[in-house]
């Protein structure tokens, strides 16, 4: 459905700062190459604390981070082959969450019938993905497509971030091209114009025209000279729960959102840049270019954004009843989608619970 692009007053929905997630999606939780065999980490997806481990054979597993014996965090334990052993008493659990061994029981003694929740998990694009919702739906859902990951000619720069803010605030920031004003001292973009806006049941697609100027624009190939102004289209798609934005022929960003709690979010971003260097030269220079772009460009933009988002969250917490006005229809559309996804999940959960409690026949 096409939406109007006029910038007009609209009231921000307060509910969007309180809603939870729709867990029936794949969520990126960490970098795969940072988890070695026999290592265990802990991650949180919307208040669900999960122990993630790579077994001795290199396979990933995800279990609820609480031993059913004493409630000890399982990420404090050790990997034994393909099992995870609790640090306290050594109770071992397999990848399905079943207790398969207790070291101080006799061989013939029956194990207690206890189990921790296991989660569907996979590794793709050097990211660890977990499906925190109904596990029977995991096979019919997929992480977002990132074609640039396997294409030549792109310089990939990964970047993780941590925000003390509700994921809706972070998502609005990603859709909000009008905040280039914030980054003017970093030679950011200016004179943005919302050209088109479309909304579907599961996605928002906005197209803007933006202008660039300066040394960063020249480095990225946006212009031949630093003092030259270049205007280009940028498209931003929010397909719940993740983002993809592209600047025509120049860059592509895949932003994977990880909601942690009502006041905490994380993200894992893959930036792709078209650098004007031959492939034979780009490959050996990639590690150095990644460090330079991350340190001298991306982290500076990110730091300014984090300050704004966390300020917005603190102001909301101080006075949740305060009304705010938004004039960008793309932001309002993002809010609708966030609330709709949560309400749809809650409705289906309620229906499933009623069916379970009152089976037909």
Key descriptive features of the protein:
single chain; 4 helices; Naphthalene 1,2-dioxygenase Alpha Subunit, Chain A, domain 1; 361 residues; 19 strands; Rieske Iron-sulfur Protein; 4-stranded antiparallel beta sheet; alpha+beta; 23% helix
CATH superfamily of the largest domain: Naphthalene 1,2-dioxygenase Alpha Subunit, Chain A, domain 1
Q: What would you say the CATH architecture of the largest domain is?
A: Alpha-Beta Complex
Structural class, by secondary structure, is: alpha+beta
- CATH class label of the largest domain: Alpha Beta
Share of helical residues: 10-25%
Tell me the series of helices and strands, N- to C-terminal: EEEEEEEEEEEEHEEHEEEEHEH
Task: Chart the SSEs and their pairings.
Elements: E1 10-11, E2 27-31, E3 40-45, E4 48-54, E5 60-64, E6 78-80, E7 83-85, E8 92-93, E9 99-101, E10 121-124, E11 127-130, E12 155-163, H1 167-175, E13 190-199, E14 203-212, H2 215-219, E15 230-239, E16 242-247, E17 251-261, E18 264-273, H3 279-318, E19 325-326, H4 329-357
Antiparallel strand pairs: 1-19, 2-11, 3-4, 4-5, 6-7, 7-8, 8-9, 10-11, 12-18, 13-14, 14-15, 15-16, 16-17, 17-18
Descriptive report:
This protein is of the alpha+beta class and 361 residues long. The chain folds into 2 domains: 37-122, Rieske Iron-sulfur Protein (3-layer Sandwich); 147-340, Naphthalene 1,2-dioxygenase Alpha Subunit, Chain A, domain 1 (Alpha-Beta Complex). Helix content is 23%, strand content 31%. The chain has 4 helices and 19 strands. A 7-stranded antiparallel β-sheet has the order 12-18-17-16-15-14-13. Strands 6-7-8-9 form a 4-stranded antiparallel β-sheet, with no helix packed on it. Strand 8 and strand 9 (99-101) form a beta hairpin. The longest helix has 40 residues, at 279-318. The protein is globular. The two termini are 42 Å apart. The mean pLDDT is 92.
């Amino acid at each position: 459905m096409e939406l109007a692009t006029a910038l007009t007053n609209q009231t921000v929905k307060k509910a969007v700062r309180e809603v939870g997630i729709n867990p029936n999606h794949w969520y990126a939780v960490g970098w795969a190459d940072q988890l070695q065999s026999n290592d265990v980490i802990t991650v949180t997806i919307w208040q669900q604390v999960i122990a993630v481990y790579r077994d001795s054979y290199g396979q990933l597993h995800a279990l609820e981070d609480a031993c059913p014996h004493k409630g000890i965090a399982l990420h404090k334990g050790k990997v034994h082959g393909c099992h995870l052993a609790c640090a306290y008493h050594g109770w071992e659990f397999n990848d399905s969450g079943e207790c398969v061994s207790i070291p101080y029981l006799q061989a013939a003694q029956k194990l207690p019938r206890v189990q921790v929740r296991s989660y569907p998990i996979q590794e793709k694009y050097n990211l660890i993905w977990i499906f925190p919702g109904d596990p029977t739906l995991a096979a019919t859902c997929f992480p977002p497509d990132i074609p640039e990951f396997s294409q030549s000619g792109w310089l990939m720069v990964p970047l993780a971030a941590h925000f003390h803010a509700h994921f809706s605030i972070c998502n609005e920031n990603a859709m909000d091209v009008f905040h280039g004003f914030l980054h003017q001292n970093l030679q950011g973009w200016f004179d943005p114009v919302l050209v088109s806006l479309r909304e579907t049941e599961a996605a928002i697609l906005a197209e803007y025209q933006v202008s660039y100027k300066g040394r960063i624009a020249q480095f990225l190939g946006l212009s031949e000279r630093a003092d030259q102004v270049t205007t280009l289209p940028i498209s931003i798609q929010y397909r719940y729960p993740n983002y993809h934005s592209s600047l025509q022929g120049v860059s592509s960003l895949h932003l994977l959102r990880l909601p942690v709690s009502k006041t905490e979010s994380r993200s894992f971003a893959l930036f792709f840049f078209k650098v004007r260097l031959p492939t034979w030269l780009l490959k050996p220079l990639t590690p150095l270019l990644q460090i330079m772009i991350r340190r001298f460009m991306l982290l500076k933009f990110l730091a300014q954004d984090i300050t704004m988002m966390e300020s917005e969250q603190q102001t909301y917490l101080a006075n949740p009843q305060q009304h705010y006005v938004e004039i960008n229809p793309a932001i309002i559309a993002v809010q609708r989608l966030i609330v709709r996804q949560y309400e749809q999940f809650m409705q289906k959960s309620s229906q499933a619970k009623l069916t379970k409690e009152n089976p037909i026949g």
